[in-house]
Write a structure and sequence with these properties.
The protein has 482 residues and is α+β, with helices and mostly antiparallel strands. It has 17 helices and 15 strands. The strands form five sheets. Strands 5, 6, 13, 14 and 15 form a five-stranded antiparallel sheet that branches. Helix 2 crosses helix 13 and helix 11 runs parallel beside helix 14.
């Protein structure tokens, strides 16, 4: 085979080529992102709509059913399911596997433009939610303090901790739950409302009209231009109480005449404790293209600095770190791969009976795996349990071609041929056989790339790593081993 003959004749050149390939593979290994699973794209889009105070039956009639009929015309939709609950409508759209979910989301948004006018005025804008596994939280913190109450803790978490965490590279958002959130309550007295012959809708409309931030234009002269900013939003309880609802017989009826305005808190639907103490929970999500392990490491590293800038007594305690399980899983797989390499070398040493020959054959394992890292980096794959499992499974197969080549060269060398001639002749004798053997192995794995659904997406990276490492091992057997 011409390639083998060239490799033997230009040994230094091919040695430099392999050194460059291994160096590029090690560089790519440092760039690979660590994650638990491959990037999975589920073809599901959910529409979440709220209509406060409306029961499930009416929600289905006036909200859910019109939304279903509108989005049913979107291309590639295979199934629509819906749920109507108190004040809430949930419509789920399932698309065919392999659909472009970015385009599907745009199509859903365009379809909703036709139904907006048919929905009641008080219905919230439908929230379009495309399911993404990368949106799951990666870090949970509990925020506690023996000094501050539940309301102060939530305020500190939202205004002081969240902005600092969101500035860390790779962090998409930080959300606080628990504690007591401030809420201005306007308790309308039905008797006073009836006495003034007013309706609750008039109260709502007056509050909406007087709590707007509207542009006011600009003024200019020959040299300068000034923007005019108006303060239209409420800044105090007194402003809400003095809001005019209507004028009757020359008397101005205000909010405080028909209602009580209370600066209070939202009803507590959940309470959080950490180690027996009242606390608030802080959840972090990463950006879809961020390295989970790196983001978690940066967040945990920044916590002491953030705590030093918080009010006295406030503590942040880590109680869930997703990167810990990823590191443990990758460490176990890495250890398994190293054990497989050592056991393979011992088996080779036992059967070949020659230490030097066993080292030469075993050399094909690290070279094939390291070069595969470069391919993974260029294809945008991540180092996860699936891809690492593929490499671990391929370890035993990576030496098959090299064993056959070494045995053939060793046999011809014993017949009295010169080393260079024996390497060339021995490799050429088995080149077609090992190529056919490798191709038949690849033919078993390659069809998995075309398997539809979740299984195809999940095992795609495993198949790619196995196939590329086997292909590299064939090239190594035909060039490096001789």
């Amino acid at each position: 085979m011409k390639m083998t003959e060239t490799a033997i004749r230009r040994g230094v050149t091919f040695a430099m080529i392999y050194l460059i390939a291994v160096g590029f593979g090690l560089f790519s290994l440092a760039r690979l992102k660590l994650d638990l699973f491959p990037k999975l794209e589920f073809p599901v889009i959910a529409l979440i709509t709220q209509y406060t105070g409306v029961g499930p039956f009416d929600m289905e009639t006036v909200v859910t059913r019109p939304l279903e009929e509108t989005v049913a015309v979107v291309e590639n939709v295979t199934k629509i399911t819906s749920q109507s609950a108190q004040s809430l409508s949930l419509v789920s759209l399932e698309f065919g596997w392999g659909s472009d979910m970015n385009q599907a989301e745009i199509d859903v948004r365009n379809a909703l433009e036709w139904v907006r006018d048919a929905l009641p005025e008080d219905v919230t804008e439908p929230l379009i939610f495309a399911f993404d596994i990368s949106m799951q939280p990666i870090v949970y913190f509990s925020v506690t303090s023996p000094v501050h109450g539940a309301a102060e803790l939530r305020k500190i978490s939202e205004r002081e901790i969240e902005p600092r965490l969101e500035r860390i590279p790779g962090v998409a958002s930080a959300m606080t739950s628990g504690g007591m959130a401030r809420e201005i309550k306007i308790l309308v007295d039905p008797l006073r409302l009836r006495a003034y012959n007013l309706s609750i809708q008039q109260i709502t409309q007056a509050l909406q009209i007087n709590n707007l931030q509207l542009p006011a234009g600009y003024i200019d002269d020959e040299r300068q231009e000034f923007s005019i900013q108006t303060s239209g939003e409420y800044t105090s309880i007194e402003e809400i109480e003095n809001t005019s609802v209507m004028a009757m017989n020359g008397v101005n009826i205000r909010i405080k005449d028909v209602a009580d305005v209370i600066d209070g808190f939202k009803d507590e639907r959940q309470r959080i404790w950490a180690n027996g103490e009242p606390a608030v929970s802080l959840v972090l999500q990463r950006q879809s293209d961020a390295n989970t392990v790196q983001v978690c490491r940066d967040v945990i590293k920044a916590v002491p600095q953030i705590e030093s800038e918080l009010p006295k007594g406030v503590k942040m305690e880590l109680f869930y770190d997703s990167s810990e399980f990823i590191r443990l899983s990758m460490s176990n797989l890495g250890s398994t791969a190293i054990q497989a390499v050592l056991l393979t070398f011992l088996v080779l040493l036992f059967f070949l009976g020659n230490f030097r020959t066993s080292i030469i054959v075993a050399l094909s394992i690290p070279v094939s795996i390291i070069v595969t890292f470069a391919v993974m980096d260029q294809m945008g794959l991540t180092l996860n349990v699936i891809s690492m499992a593929g490499l671990a499974l391929a370890v035993g197969m990576l030496v098959d071609n090299s064993i056959v080549v070494v045995e053939s060269i060793f046999r011809i060398r014993q017949e009295g041929e010169k080393p260079a001639d024996a390497a060339n002749k021995g490799t050429n004798e088995v080149a077609m056989a090992i190529t056919a053997s490798t191709l038949t192995t690849l033919a078993v794995f390659l069809p998995v790339l075309f398997v539809p659904g979740l299984a195809g997406q999940l095992f795609k990276e495993m198949v790619i790593t196995i196939c590329f490492s086997l292909a590299v091992s064939l090239i190594v057997a035909l060039t490096l081993i001789p």
